[in-house]
Amino acid sequence: MSRDSSLDALTLDGFEEVQGGHWTLQNDGHSVVLSVGSGMSVSGGGLPAQYHTLQLHFHWGSPSTNGSEHTLDSRRFPMEMHVVNMKSTHPNVSAALDDPTGLAVLGIFIDVVYADNVHFSSISQKLSSVAHKGQEAKVKPFPLMNLLPRHNLSQYYRYHGSLTTPPCSQAVLWTVYEVPVYISWTQLAQFTSQIFSTEEDAEQVTPLQNNFRHIHPVFSREVSASRDARLLPGAAGRAGPPSVGLMLFVLLGLLSRAF
C-alpha cells in the first residue's frame, strides 16, 4: 500500500439535498436495495469521470457474526453499505460492465452502538415492508449524506476491483472509507433477524444472513491510501506496496467486492 497525495475527498453532488419523487426499497433475495433515481453524482478524488448514483445496498452477517465485505486491520464490521455509481457516459449498467472503470462504488463500514441512528431510520423503519424476497416499499428521499461519515470523507482507500456477484466483472473503482457510521443493536437486528431470502408464501422461510463474499487473495492489486487516510502499521516508509499477507489481513481483505 502506498499513499497517493492526489486522492482528496470526492465531490458528492446532490448528496446534501432532498431529491424529488420517491425512492424504492426492495428485497431482491440477496440484499436490501434502495434505488435513488436521478439527481446525485460523484466525481473527483482520483475518479476518471463523473458517475451517476444509482442505488445503495447492504451486506451483513447474522445475530452472532459480523458481515462486512471488507476488513480493516483484520477486523470485520457488523455491516457494510455500498453506494453504487455508474460512469455518466454509459446508458446502462450492462454497458458499464464492459468498461474497466465503468462503476465507482463507495464502501462504508457500519458499526454498532446502543442509540438509534435517526438518519438510518428512514430505511430501518421500512424493513418490515420488505421482509420477503420481491417485496418493495416507497421511501421518502432524504439527504444521502446523512448515511456517510461526513466528517471523515477525505479518509479512504482506493483500488480497482470487481463485483462480488456473477459475472464478477472487473469494472469497479472502489473507495472504501476508513471511518465507520453507527447504528443501534436494534437496527442491526432488523437486518440479521427480520429479513428473509425467500418469498412470503414459501414453504420454508429462510433468513437472509451472511450475504457477503469471503476474503479473496489480493494478487497484484495496488491499494492506495488517500491523502488523509492513516497508513497501517508496517506500511509507512515502504517504497512499494506491502506484502500480500499484510495487504490481505491488515488492510482490506481484497479481491472482488460487491454489487
UniProtKB/TrEMBL annotation:
Question: Gene3D superfamilies annotated for this entry?
Answer: Alpha carbonic anhydrase
Reply yes or no: does the keyword Glycoprotein apply.
yes
Q: Which residues form the signal peptide?
A: none
Query: Its Enzyme Commission number?
Result: 4.2.1.1
Instruction: Fetch the InterPro entries from UniProt.
Output: CA_dom (IPR001148), CA_dom_sf (IPR036398), Carbonic_anhydrase_a-class (IPR023561), Carbonic_anhydrase_a-class_CS (IPR018338)
Q: Name one Pfam family in it.
A: Carb_anhydrase
Recorded GO terms, molecular function?
carbonate dehydratase activity; zinc ion binding
* UniProt keyword list: Glycoprotein, Lyase, Metal-binding, Zinc
The protein's matches in PROSITE patterns, at most eight in alphabetical order, are given as: ALPHA_CA_1 (PS00162), ALPHA_CA_2 (PS51144)
| Source species, domain of life | Eukaryota
Q: Which GO terms describe its cellular component?
A: plasma membrane
Q: Which reaction does it catalyse?
A: hydrogencarbonate + H(+) = CO2 + H2O
Cofactor(s), by name: Zn(2+)
Every Alpha-carbonic anhydrase domain range: 1-227
Annotated coiled-coil segments of the chain:
none
**Protein family according to the UniProt entry:** Belongs to the alpha-carbonic anhydrase family.
Q: What does this protein do?
A: Reversible hydration of carbon dioxide.
Name of the protein described by the UniProt record: Carbonic anhydrase
Source organism per entry reads Periophthalmus magnuspinnatus
